[in-house]
Amino acid sequence: MDRFDAMRAFARVVEAGSFTKAADTLHMSKTSITQLVQQLEARLRVRLLNRTTRKVAVTADGAAYYERVVRLLADMDDAETSLSDATSQPRGRLRVDVPSPFARMILVPSLPAFHARYPDIQLDLGVSDRLVDLVGENVDCVIRGGEIMDQSLMARRVGDLQSGVYAAPSYLQRCGAPVHPQELVDSHHRIVGFKRARAGKVFSYRMQRGAERLDIEGRYVLAVDDGNAYLAAGLAGLGVLWLPTYMADEHQQRGELVAVFADWQFEPMPMYIAYPPNRHVSTKLRVFIEWVAELMALHAPAIDRSGR
């Protein structure tokens, strides 16, 4: 038994919650993972996992052992990195998931600079607005707009997106320009709805003008769960859009979108990088997080909320 492989297999089973998912993320067979964990339990003479037909649960001894194994694996990774020629040049594969408009308009166009700085980091980029199971899918980090709902994740705020409300000229010609946001709720006006995957509910948006505050959900003929499709629907005149300014600016300059409700203000949307708890923040992940923070400082810097 290779003790390193056995410890790594055990840690992945704990994190993924199943032998099958652990085998998939380690590119090994389920049988091999099972045998490694069984051999580890036999060597330690303790049961690390309780197995049923439906789930795998870590025992009290297994939980204590897992905490030490994670630290040990992290130390081994750091030791190997420090002894290589890549001490100042992180290497390896990073699995990242980002929203589709952010990928298309900001992240991907900037990646040549990232790879020039870190040529040995390989990025596997998932582009979606879906909810990602970071542990089960073995994703290193996600970049998301809005508050992180899963409080178990570690998260760093890297930016704040300013937003506005926009409509295509074709929509305004057909329906007229709405004067007050409430018209999106109780008149002929329509929005393009945006849904987070699995949420089943269209987003509502908080708007303020002086002492007047509203949470507007709006009525729609189309709701989508992808940012690029959302923008395309608005450009096609299917309804009014709430957009981060980075998504709207270019289209507004070309006359493809027109701002409405210019006298209303919006709470900035926070942008976060989130990553799994109890997961070693490797050098390659650390430099990627710092680089994204630098990128967001150029496009949508985080607002100092300390009051200083």
Automatic annotation (TrEMBL):
Return the protein name: DNA-binding transcriptional regulator, LysR family
Question: GO annotations under biological process?
Answer: DNA-templated transcription
Q: Which family does it belong to?
A: Belongs to the LysR transcriptional regulatory family.
Source lineage: Bacteria, Pseudomonadati, Pseudomonadota, Gammaproteobacteria, Pseudomonadales
Q: Which PROSITE patterns match?
A: HTH_LYSR
Q: Per the UniProt entry, what species is this protein from, by scientific name?
A: Phytopseudomonas argentinensis
> Example GO molecular function term?
sequence-specific DNA binding
Which Pfam families did the record assign?
A: HTH_1, LysR_substrate
Keyword vocabulary terms for this entry: DNA-binding, Transcription, Transcription regulation
Q: Where is the HTH lysR-type domain?
A: 1-59
Q: Does the keyword Ribonucleoprotein apply?
A: no
